[in-house]
Sequence to fold (227 residues):
Amino acid sequence: DTEVTQTPKHLVMGMTNKKSLKCEQHMGHRAMYWYKQKAKKPPELMFVYSYEKLSINESVPSRFSPECPNSSLLNLHLHALQPEDSALYLCASSGGRRNTEAFFGQGTRLTVV
Amino acid sequence: KQEVTQIPAALSVPEGENLVLNCSFTDSAIYNLQWFRQDPGKGLTSLLLIQSSQREQTSGRLNASLDKSSGRSTLYIAASQPGDSATYLCAVHGGSSNTGKLIFGQGTTLQVKP
Fold:
């Protein structure tokens, strides 16, 4: 099983709302990632969790708050977002060692109104 | 700082053609290189992973090569089909930043015409 599952697939939220994106994998991977992708652009790294600890934060605004409750789950909590935060949010996982394959979920299409 | 470039940005070919997509990177100290496919509005599908010690990998009609010393990788697609139409992204893992993150190229958007 090489599946990374993201929910929801689509999300529309107002600028004052609080919502969460969820990501799950059961491949025993110890590294999990959040990427943001704008139209016709490559994915941009936001956060990396390694062994359930935040190891990389790419200077992401605090209105995005990641959480890794256990080795299989990754959440991204959203609060007070701006319309420019509308994008495809992708979750990925890999073995945690640098020579293993990364697998991506199908993404959450987020629209901020 | 690692930079990844993909050429061409877009490619349109008739069905049945063999084609090559190019990827170059500036820092040869990589751990691996991975090719992905992305359909519009969808996530990324892993196609091939080449470890830094390998020269090529094959999967079906796909063959990816890696030349670390020159900072280049190619993705060869044999006998292209309309179903191959998608954006193809290469990403390098590692580099001098030593962070374990994937650094992506801008992608090549492929259209295979019936």
